[in-house]
Amino acid sequence: MTEWTTACSDWKSRIVEKRSLIPFDPLFPSEAEYALSVFKSLRVPDLPGKPTFAEVTDEWVFDLVAAIFGANDPETGDQLISEFFLCISKKNSKSTLAAGIMLTALIVGWREDDELLILAPTKEVADNSYNPAAAMVRADPELSDLLHVQDHVRKITHRVTNSVLKVVAADTDTVGGKKSGRILIDELWILGKRPNADAMLREATGGLVSRPEGFLIYTTTQSDEPPAGVFKDKLDYARDVRDGRIQDKRFLPIIYEFPREMIEQEAYLDPENFYITNPNLGRSVSKDWLVREMGKELGKDAATRATFFAKHLNIEIGMNLRANRWPGADYWSKQADTLPLEDVLERSEVVVVGVDGGGLDDLFGLTVLGRERKTKNWLAWSHAWAHQSVLERRKGIASRLRDFEKDGDLTIVGDELDDVRAIVEIVGDVDERGLLASVAADPAGLGELIDALAEIGVTPESGKIVGAPQGYAMMNAIKTAERKLANGTLKHDGSALMSWCVGNIKIEPTATAIRATKANAGDAKIDPAMALFDAVTVMSRNPEAKRKPQYQMMIMG
Questions:
Q1: CA distances from 271 to 44, 288, 312 (A)
Q2: DSSP alpha helix (H) spans, 192-286
Q3: DSSP string, 145-156
Q4: What is the dihedral of CA 388, 232, 26, 257, to 10 degrees?
Q5: Whether the Cβ atoms of residue 241 and residue 253 lie closer than 8 Å to each other
Q6: Largest CB tally within 10 Å, which of 182, 343, 380, 389?
Q7: Structural domain range at position 392
Q8: Angle between helices 94-108 and 123-138 (to 10 degrees)
Q9: In this structure, are residues 455 and 369 in contact, taking their beta carbons and an 8 Å threshold?
């Protein structure tokens, strides 16, 4: 039995040296050679003269095709590597490649009455794959005799085996009841934004259970927002397999991205490095065009630049930064640290708990902000709660909220008081440790929380609850937080939840003040970030802990 691994621990050197990102030779060379001969003979219809893939395609494409079809055991029919993930920059012929691979699968497939499927998130994306596939057939008289093209239903039928290649748009066509054994999912990043994408993909790929020769291929560019949903899940898994953290020899990840060190050094700005995420540079991708476009983008706002870098240099967007963003967002990722709540409490001499939100359509955000004993730096840990109804009312962010839940930074609650009970428990723990200076909150709409805190002795009368100024009156806290992020004296837990919320903040200036608000009404939640500002309003006054009597006696003793 052939042994192999799909991990590619040396991918950083491979990608810089223009070597293959596939760390093994085809498992069954004869199968790979046969499929490659078919693939290479297909004509690329949108190029002058309609040359074949063999004439215009780079070696990385042939490596991928050989890995896919060369993983099929000719004796048993089993597909030993059955899942493939390709993440690559825009304009590297991804859709044409998808069409060629699936057309090859239709031609070389041995099963009769089989169904092959290209699943795209929209009709436009579906056409991007179907149109080249249909044109490849029409460009070759032999293929026109072998395959029947039906444009009105985006279907190509093998006249001998009666097998069918279908191209389906997920936004218009049903995927229920599909029996497809060989499937290609195009532009997974778009599906990642849909709350029902996971269920839809399970339905579409259900036929693989009874197709041992089947495979599933994901092709995608980077998202124009921080990765979410099924795209984030698959991208994280692919990186873990590639880096050897997960052993899965049936899953092959191929990710054209810059090593982190090169991103930190901004090496992606050097046109000499464009090839790293554009293996088709000089073919379907023009270096001169990229240079000109990047020059234009560098003069625009950060959000536009980030989208350009994501699409054409495959650089993942960490926060969706806008022109009217909070200035502290530029420094946010630099001050991320590993800060569990327990670490914040153990290292702090005093703590302020900021609270914001709480409506059924909002997140209930909490930030525990501590002042470190030794350095006097501020340490922030944040969490949020969301009622189940938010997932129904805000479907556009439902998949993203589920991601935060998986990370452990968000709790989905059903009972209307579950979030209040959890917050009271955290505040009570801080108070019992003798660390609590106060709970800082927007007084509006927090009656239930104030009543619940009173039961543990945390009341306005005791000085342990203070109203945080809101609107333009919060300007000092906003400015203080951004200055401390810039000088490195405010550290935070680095959660994706807070990165998202910070990126959603829009700053509205007047002649004399500023205020923080949402970039977009409804879906752009900022409550946990506002909880941080609430806490900063008190911490900036250099507070002392309001200890219970037993702590005062211990100190005096």
A1: 28, 9, 12
A2: 197-204, 229-242, 260-264
A3: HHEEEEGGGTEE
A4: 180
A5: yes
A6: 182
A7: 329-553
A8: 60
A9: no
Which amino acid belongs to residue 275? Answer: Y
pTM over 0.85: no
End-to-end CA distance of the chain: 74
Provide the domain count of the chain. 3
3-state secondary structure of 415: coil
Q: What is the CATH number of the domain that holds 518?
A: 3.30.420.240
Type of residue found at 303: A
**For residue range 133-182, what is the model confidence (pLDDT) as tens digits?**
999 999 999 999 999 999 999 999 999 999 999 999 886 556 665 678 89
pLDDT tens figures, 76-96: 999 999 999 999 999 998 999
Amino acid at 22: I
Determine the Cα–Cα distance for residues 555 and 547; give it in Å rounded to an integer: 10
- Rounded to 5°, angle at Cα 67 from 66 and 73: 95
Name residue, tokens 């057939």: 137
Say yes or no: 99 and 150 in one domain.
yes
Which pair of tokens denotes residue 217? 């291929």
CA 18 to chain centre: 26
Name the token pair of 531.
């909880």
Number of residues in the chain: 557
